[in-house]
Amino acid sequence: MKQKSKIILISGGTASGKSAISKDLSEIFQKNKIDASFFSIDNYYYDEKEIKNIFKINDLTKVNFDDPNTINWKDFNDDLNKVFSGLIVERKIYNFKTCNYDLSKTFKVKPAEYIIIEGIFAFFNQKLLNNAFKKIYIEADGDLRLIRRYKRDYNYHHHNHSFNCENFINRWEKQIYPMFKKYIEKNRKQADYVILNNIDSKININKKAKQIFDLIKDNN
């Protein structure tokens, strides 16, 4: 992996606030006239056809998307290497309702001084860990993350009446929480900084992003 950019990894459990803090951090870099690009590992899940083929399953409700093996790491590493080579990467955005990529929406990642990579599996990829400039773990109380995730999933699905409370609880108990214990929580010790995020507000998110920015610049 050839690189000039400095990789900032941001991990943590589901609904800890990773995505919001990462996006604010990217904006803070830009406001300080420092080039930064943002990668979300969420946009590298296998699509419906690939999932069914790889896991030999037809019912997508049975797929455990909190398992890191549902991520297309080859595509992710290929795109990251393209950015390090000076190329702009454009990729379709993953749609969690259909488990496919949205043909009408794309995101671009440009070569930059800092590459912010966010996702629950940000510390899972050993190549990323070995080449990271800074590793940030966003921590939030487990019961708070459960409530946040419940609200997020409800708001995401309620308009088409597809949200089912019993299914959500079952997924949390059998997939989300066990995978967190197996893959995510133990990686906390590999972080350079642990940021506590137990307050739900835009002001707090920006405050946490500013805290990370200051830590990175002070220790550059």
Short description:
It is built from 7 helices and 7 strands; from the N terminus they run E-H-E-H-H-E-E-E-H-E-H-H-E-H.
Characterise the protein shown here.
- The chain is of the alpha/beta class.
- The chain has one domain: Rossmann fold, CATH 3.40.50.
- Helices cover 42% and strands 21% of the residues.
- It contains seven helices and seven strands.
- The strands form two sheets. The chain has a five-stranded parallel beta sheet with strand order 2-5-1-6-7. It has a two-stranded antiparallel ribbon with strand order 3-4.
- The longest helix is centred in the C-terminal third of the chain and has 20 residues, at 165-184.
- The chain is globular.
- The mean pLDDT is 92.
In terms of topology, how is this protein built?
Elements: E1 6-12, H1 18-31, E2 36-40, H2 48-55, H3 73-84, E3 89-95, E4 100-109, E5 114-118, H4 126-131, E6 132-139, H5 142-157, H6 165-184, E7 193-196, H7 202-218
Parallel strand pairs: 1-5, 1-6, 2-5, 6-7
Antiparallel strand pairs: 3-4
Helix pairs in contact: 1-7
Query: Which class of secondary structure composition applies to the elements?
Result: alpha/beta
Average of pLDDT = 92
CATH top-level class: Alpha Beta
Count of discrete structural domains: 1
CATH architectural type: 3-Layer(aba) Sandwich
Look at the structure and name the CATH superfamily: P-loop containing nucleotide triphosphate hydrolases
The helical percent reads: 40-55%
β-sheet strand percentage: 15-25%
**DSSP helical segment count:** 7
Order of helices and strands: EHEHHEEEHEHHEH
Here the CATH topology equals Rossmann fold
Rg over CA atoms: 17 Å
Query: Could you give the distance between the termini?
Result: 21 Å
Number of strands: 7
Low-confidence stretches: none
Overall, the morphology is: globular
In the sheet with the most strands, the strands line up as: 2-5-1-6-7
